[in-house]
Amino acid sequence: VQLQACGGGLVQVGGSLRLSCAASGRVFSSYVMGWFRQATGKEREFVAAIGLRGGLKHYTDAVKGRSTISRRDNAQTTVYLEMNSLKPEDTAVYYCAASPVRSVYYTVPETENQYDYWGQGTLVTVSS
């Protein structure tokens, strides 16, 4: 199982980035895919998640309205996080994660312990 995140980098305040995460080794089309982030000295926090076939998108308030999560499911699952109007407080290591769907009445989880698989993280630095 591998979740490979990329797309981080150094960007100026107000700029944009598109993070990608390629998931392989499981049938990740049946998983909720999420993004979390961890700033230096802080706990890891939920950013956004997307349900099966692109439904049930959910964002934390801090990025709502300026971020878009999407996914593509074919031979492998790729999840994207497009972030606009970046702020210095968006600086963090961003992690993608996968949460198994166990019911047709599933919800999009925000807590780390509901995600079984994690990527290695990609650093986003927003400079002023």
Helix and strand layout, with pairings?
Elements: E1 2-6, E2 9-12, E3 17-24, E4 31-38, E5 45-50, E6 58-59, E7 67-73, E8 77-83, E9 92-100, E10 117-118, E11 122-127
Parallel strand pairs: 2-11
Antiparallel strand pairs: 1-3, 3-8, 4-5, 4-9, 5-6, 7-8, 9-10, 9-11
> Overall mean pLDDT score?
96
Helical stretch count?
Answer: 0
Biggest sheet statistics: 7 strands, mixed
Secondary structure: number of strands: 11
Written overview of the protein:
The chain is mostly beta strands. The protein has strands at residues 2-6, 9-12, 17-24, 31-38, 45-50, 58-59, 67-73, 77-83, 92-100, 117-118, 122-127. Strands 2, 4, 5, 6, 9, 10 and 11 form a 7-stranded mixed sheet that branches. A 4-stranded antiparallel sheet has the order 1-3-8-7, with no helix packed on it. A hairpin with a 3-residue loop joins strand 7 and strand 8 (77-83). The radius of gyration is 14 Å and the shape is globular. The relative contact order is 0.33. The mean pLDDT is 96.
